[in-house]
Structure formats: structure tokens, C-alpha cells
Amino acid sequence: MTAYLVSMLTFTGFFMILALALNLQWGMTGMVNFGIAGFYALGAYTSGLLTAKLGWPVGLAMPTAVAAGFVAGGLIALLSLRLREDFFAIVTLGFGEIMRLIALNEDEITEGPRGLKIDARPFAGMFDRELYPIVYLILVASVVALAFIVVECIRRAPLGRTLRAIREDDVVAEVLGKNVLLHRVTVFAIGGAFMGAAGALYAHYVQNISPEVFMPMVAIFIWMSVIVGGAGNNWGLLIGAGIVMTILEGTRFIGDFVDILDAEKLSALRIILIGTLLIIILRVKQGGLLPEQRFTYKGSQESGRTETQTSNA
Amino acid sequence: MSWQILVNGLVNAALIAPPAIALSLIFGVMRFPNFAIGGYITVGAFFAYAVNVDLGAPIWLAAIAAMIGTAVVVWLSDALVFRPMQGRGPVTLLVLSIALTLILEHIVRLFYGADVRGFDLPLQRPYRFGDIRITQEQIEIIVLAIAIAAITHLILQYTRTGKAVRATADNPMLAQVRGIDTGWIILLTWLYCGMLFGLTGVLAGLDLVIEPLVGWYLTIPIFAAAILGGIGSPYGAMLGALLVGLAEELTVLILPSTYKIGVGFVIIAILLLVRPQGLLGRPEIKK
Question: Which residues have CB under 8 Å from B280's CB, separation 6+?
């Protein structure tokens, strides 16, 4: 049971990293990313292939996966120059599908649907078998913490205000002299880097990756996490990721009580449930469980008058 | 060999033209890219499968049932999901439509599993014209696509309702001022498009296979066609379908056919960068 709990927490950690990255891109900057599965796959396959096929050490392969996510994110964000947000969303979805198709079809390199076996693990041999899952959980948790700190710092910094301005109205931000494209590229690259990191951590954890894991469905789980928690709020999405994972895992146990549902039907029911919940939450609780905090500006006390202004952000 | 590719491309184009027209019409009146079309097409294919195989009815009856059934599903999805959340911005509606397509696909999977199926039809030899082979179903698909394009053209151009649809797409406020009941027009558009999606499901089942993902595989080429032609422009969608259909078949010469779905995306990405309004679309002033 402990082993199960530890592995669930580890998987929740992957979701949290992805959700934090999406919150930076969409929640804070307003850039829609439906290609999350693509970045996740890119990170997983980069690190997996480098260690399994080229014999790179994990300590070098994982950072390369992060760099790959960073570069891919930056390049895709360049497309936002000319695209309306909903069309940019279609392009990111395309990126995700193309990544999956490459993993599926270039099977001489990626092993395709047979799955790529990865033996290398970080800190291999330094801990005994019993302890290792917990060590890995701590590793994942520290990456979650790192991602959280980075994203939260950006949110509080002047940079965060600029990003919110871009989200609310990019033309106004541009008029105010902000370099909108540069900000978008930076944000998407950082988000991509974290998604790549999540992918690499996932690859070395399960040690066998195959393309069907990286279906566009992953994006919906992560979107669900961010929307349930409250877009723009980093604390909320941690809860959101936990809720989504609980639904995904908790529904497995329904099969123990209801005989007519086989694994196939259960997995279908799970997706139906997640999708329906997403629609209901968007309808009844637009801001999510923990809505984004609104920044208030208090005028200086010395001038004798106190102004309280609620920004639109 | 090369003529065969042209024929395959035409069949491909005929398959994606009706839903691309429908997607364009919906985008025109609703103003968001509706990814639920994949779910609608899958639902259509399985409605027809249920009537044709489970009930043993002939295929033309199954097709009619699928069109009506899908139109009802599409109308329900509008009433339950999209209409209450109109005005939330295109991205929220886009997220909703992706969630909806997953729900529809998995409801089908709940009842039919993920197996690949086919209609209960006698196997027929394909017709041969010299080196070119074409099945009777493929000829039917091409004829139906041309008929639908013509019917849509006649409705949009010459009927009061069609003119009202165009007016609503152009400027809903102005249309309302002129006494057009835009809610009614949007409902009619949904129903008409629902029938087209249902029919596409049947045709896809005839030409390809019936499985829960059949709609998803078609979603990307349909979007590519609609965007290529200038989304919101039904005539552009017809042209776009022709180009995407041919482009997909031509890439088979260079790339493995499994990359077909990627071709659609590449077309979308390049086109959006070079000419965001599409081939026949009018430039939209970005806010």
C-alpha cells in the first residue's frame, strides 16, 4: 500500500510540473498550449534515447531533455507573432500530434509501439531497492518545488505584471513599450523546459515509454488541473493536479465492486467523468477552486489620501 | 500509378469537403474553432453501424438515421454546453469542445469498445478504368460531396434562411437589427451541420473503417481544409478540401502514409503564417 501511495504521489508530481508550466503559459500569459503531450514526449524520448541508445549518463541526458523542451517551446512561440490565440492553439495541438507520430513511426530509433526500454536511472545503485522509490519521489518533489518557486517568482515580479498585461490585451502592452513577442517566446520556452523535465523524470521512472502514453488526452488532464485549481493561481493547480489524479486512480477501484465493467469500459468511464467535470466546473465555477488573486494598489500614505484601486489583471 | 493517386486524392477531398463546409458554417455563426467535430463524426458512424448491423437495416436507411441522430446530438451539445457559455471567449469554448469530443468518443467506446468494425455490405469488385481502380462506395462519396456543395451553395445564395445565415455570420448585431432571429438561425445552422457530420461518419465508415477514433483522424484534415479556404467561408472550405485531399495523397510518395495526419498540421501552420485569412477569406482586423 505504501508503495502504491508513493507511486501515485510521484505521478501526481509529473502532473504538477506540467500544470505549473501550463499555468505560466496560459494562466499567466494567455498562451494556449494543447501540445503538452508533445513536450512531455520530447523530454521523455530525448532523455530516454540518449541514455538507452547512446549510453549517455543520466546526469547529462536529463538536462539535455530540459534544453530540448526549452528550444521547442521558444520556436513554437515564434508562431504566435501572426496567429490569433485560438489558431495558435491548433498549431500547438499539431506539434503534439507530430511528436507522437514521429515516436510511433520512426520505430528504428524509438522502438515505436513496442516501447523504448530505459535502464538508466538517476542515483542508480546509491540506495537499496526498497528505498529507491522514495528517493525518486523526493527528486520529483524537488523539481515540483523548483518549478513552483520559479513560476511564483515570475508571477510576483514586475515581469508577472507584464505577462498579465499581455494576457489581458497584447496591443495595450505593446503600446506601453513591452516587447510582447520576446515575453511570449521566453514564457513558452521556460514552460517547455519544465514540460521536458517532467517527461525526462517520467521516462526514467517507468523505464519503458511508448507513444500511446502521449495522446492529446494528457493535455486535457493538465488543463483540467489548472482550470479546477484556478487559472493564474499556483497553489490552486497543485490541488487541481491532486484532484485529477484522485479521479483517475480512484475510479480504478470501482471495478472491484461492479462486475459488469471491465478495464476497457472503466477507462472510458474515467475519461467521460473527467470531461464532464471539466465542462461543469467551467460552467458553474469559472475561476476554479482558488481563483487568481487580484492585485490591489494602495496609494502612498504620505500624500494624505489613500487610493485603493483594483487592477483589471 | 499517378492517376490512381489523383483519384485517391479526390475521394479523400470528397470525404473532408462536407464536414469542412459544416465547420466553416459553424465557425461563421459561433466564432470559435469547434474541435467537437471529431466526436460528432464518430457518433454518426456508430449510429449508422447500430442501425445497419445491429438492426439489420439497409445502409441508406442507416445513413438517414445517422444524420438525424447526429443532428440531435449536435443540437444537445449546443444547448447544454456551448450556448450557456457563449461570450466566454474562443479559448474557453475551444477547451469545452475538446472535452466534448473526448466524452462523445468514449461514450461510443463504452458501448462498442475500441475494435475496428465495418458496415454489413456485400463486397464488390472495384471498377477499373485502365490502370485506375475505384470502388462503388468511392464514386458515391464523390457524387454526394458534389451534391452537398451544390445544395449548400443554393441554400446560402438563394433562400431567405441562407441569406440570414450569411448575415448572422457577417455581423450578428446588424442581423438582429434587421429583424433576423439569430438564435433560430444558429440553431438551424447547428442542425444542418449536424446532418453533414453524421453523413461524414457514414461515408468514413464506408471508405475507411469504423472505430471510435475515426472522427479524430479526420478532424485535422477537416480543420486544415477549412482554414486553408479561409475559415468562415464555405466556398473556401470546398477548395481547401480539394487541396488538402490531394496534398495528403501526394505526400504518400515521399513520406510513409502514417504521417498523413501530420501533413494537415504542417499545411495549417505554414498557411496561417503566410496568409492567416486563408485563400478565400477576408482579412480580419485583429483587436
Answer: B229, B230, B233, B235, B236, B239
Mean pLDDT, each 10-residue run in order, chain A (313 residues): 85 92 89 91 92 85 93 88 76 87 83 81 78 89 94 88 85 84 91 94 89 84 86 85 85 69 79 87 78 64 44 42
Quote the CA–CA distance of B44 and B203 in Å, as a whole number. 10
Residue A277 lies in a domain: no
Residue B127's DSSP bridge partners are: B134
Please give the Cα distance from A31 to A188 (Å, whole number): 8
Provide the 10 A C-beta neighbour count for residue B39. Answer: 32
Contact call for residues A165 and A111 (beta carbons, < 8 A): no
Tell me how far apart the alpha carbons of residues A283 and A275 are, in angstroms, rounded to a whole number: 12
Residue B54 gets which letter from DSSP?
A: I
B249, B8 contact by CB (below 8 A): yes
Look at A275 and B256 and tell me if their CB atoms are within 8 Å: no
Question: Domains of chain B: which residue ranges?
Answer: 18-212
The answer to whether B266 contacts chain A (CB < 8 Å) is yes
* pTM for this entry: 0.84
Please tell me the predicted confidence (pLDDT) of residue B204: 92
Subunit contact B269:A91, Cβ cutoff 8 A: yes
- Decide if B85 touches A, using CB distance below 8 A: yes
Residue B94's alpha-carbon distances to A40, A112, A155, B192, in angstroms, are 22, 31, 26, 21
B57 sits in which H/E element: none
pLDDT at A188: 92
Q: Does the pLDDT value for residue B131 go beyond 60?
A: yes
Residue A104 lies in a domain: yes
Which pLDDT belongs to residue B286?
A: 46
Structural domain including A161 reads 2-214
Please report whether residue A143 resides in a domain.
yes
Contacts of B88 in chain A (CB under 8 A): 282, 286
* Chain A nearest C-alpha distance from B5 (Å): 22
Half-sphere exposure of B255 (CA within 13 A, CB side): 16
**3 state DSSP class of B149:** helix
Using the structure block, give the residue that is written with the C-alpha cell 472510458: A268
Residue of chain A whose alpha carbon sits nearest to that of B262: A98
Domain membership flag for residue A118: yes
How far, in Å, CA of A156 to CA of A152, rounded? 6
